[in-house]
Amino acid sequence: MRSINDIADEIIAREGGFVDDPDDPGGATKHGVTIHTLRRLGLDLDGDGAVTVSDVRRLSRAEARGIFVTHYFEAPRIGLLPAALHASVFDMYVNAGAHAVRLLQRLLNDMGHSLTVDGVIGPKTAEAAHQAHRLAPAHLVDAYGIARRNYYYALADRRPASRKFARRRDGGKGGWIVRAEDFIHPRFHLSEAEHRARVSAWG
Q1: Whose CA is closest to 153, among 115, 194, 106?
Q2: Rg for the chain (alpha carbons), in Å?
Q3: How many CA atoms lie within 13 A of 39 on its CB side?
Q4: Strands 33-34 and 29-30
Q5: By the 8 A CB rule, do 130 and 82 touch?
Q6: How far apart (Å, rounded) are the C-alpha atoms in residues 34 and 181?
Q7: Please, where are the H alpha helices in the chain?
Q8: Angle at the Cα of 57 (from 56 to 58), degrees rounded to 5?
Q9: What are the residue boundaries of the structural domains of the chain, listed by start?
Q10: 89 and 80 in contact (C-beta within 8 Å)?
Q11: What does the alpha-carbon distance between residue 1 and residue 42 come to, in Å, rounded to a whole number?
């Protein structure tokens, strides 16, 4: 079984190196860690008294791993969820913050639970997730991945600048969609035709 550090390393590999895309609300990013995260944590890596893009550039993989494990896995208490959900929820928490938990809570409510959708993993959310997992372990993991994929499509529907993250220039699946489908059984992946039909209204 993969450790949390192993999962964090996979996230870092998925995120890639330094990027400063003006269409990305996260701003300058390296290994998936944004400049906003460095500022929130007060990580002035070059010691010049301010957290700037240069600090993002200096971030090491080991530092990114530590940030992810401490602030994106342990702090939101993802470890309380069934182990089968750890990788997908952790990966989405890095990508979308507490939306990762709200998505799970909405999904569990659709399955008959009655949770407050607050983005916080407490005893009720954890117990509901364990109940759902005991009843249908593979179904819960796939259902979460599919809900995640739908979340990205819907986000791109609302925000045209984000569409390039869901659809490549050639019309194929963008990074967000590929990322979500990494956690879904292949039989539930959209075909290229289905993907293109889903994004056809974007022009």
Answers
A1: 194
A2: 17
A3: 12
A4: antiparallel
A5: yes
A6: 23
A7: 4-15, 35-41, 53-58, 61-67, 83-96, 99-110, 123-135, 137-158, 163-166, 175-181, 192-198
A8: 90
A9: 1-75, 97-203
A10: no
A11: 34
**What are the structure tokens assigned to 164, written together?**
């390039």
Residue 16's pLDDT band (cuts 50, 70, 90): confident
Dump pLDDT digits (tens) for 27-46.
899 999 999 999 999 999 99
Token pair 């879904």 in the structure block, residue: 184
Helical (H) or strand (E) element with 30? strand 29-30
Alpha carbons within 13 A on the beta-carbon side of 76: 26
pTM of the model: 0.92
CA-to-CA distance for 103 and 128, rounded, in angstroms? 14
Summarize pLDDT for 147-168 with one digit per residue, the tens.
Answer: 999 999 999 999 999 999 999 9
Tallying the residues shown for the chain, one arrives at: 203
